[in-house]
Amino acid sequence: SQKIEQNSEALNIQEGKTATLTCNYTNYSPAYLQWYRQDPGRGPVFLLLIRENEKEKRKERLKVTFDTTLKQSLFHITASQPADSATYLCALVLYSSASKIIFGSGTRLSIRP
Amino acid sequence: EAGVVQSPRYKIIEKKQPVAFWCNPISGHNTLYWYLQNLGQGPELLIRYENEEAVDDSQLPKDRFSAERLKGVDSTLKIQPAELGDSAVYLCASSPGGQGSGANVLTFGAGSRLTVL
What we know:
By secondary structure, chain A is mainly beta.
């Protein structure tokens, strides 16, 4: 069956540390993988995307890796801040159906001061 | 730029009543999506439009849900009759479409929260 799995438990870390979120998928062939941030009561907001032929992408304190052999993406926030507390969603953009975008269930991240 | 505009933000209805949600996407975005999001879950695709054509409605429960995007701009999602299990947030998103990785970057509205009593 096709699945996208993110950290099932909420992630709580100390301010200043690096937060690492995982996204694993099975039986999908994504062209791209995207990461979104969602705050309570709001729609998701796009953060970063990474193509299947890219290993790593960076944007300010954010870093995304993509391993198509492991079928896994890691999302890192370095020097984390309480303002980074939110739910983070990974999304696959599929080859098989152009523009079809499938979301994981999200990981809730809390950064404590 | 107003972003993706959705209305109403909140709706409370009794079961078996109809309800409609409206979405106005980013100007110039050809692709429009309706997603459903339950608490603690990721968005689940209901329907995707390329201009006025519904190109993926495989997850839309067609016995009670319908959608339209008549002029390829704004869109309406309707539920009739609503059931208790339809309580969720209905998210609209749009993307530029076309080619390239940016074509599929979604801009979401704030969502319409439906409560069915």
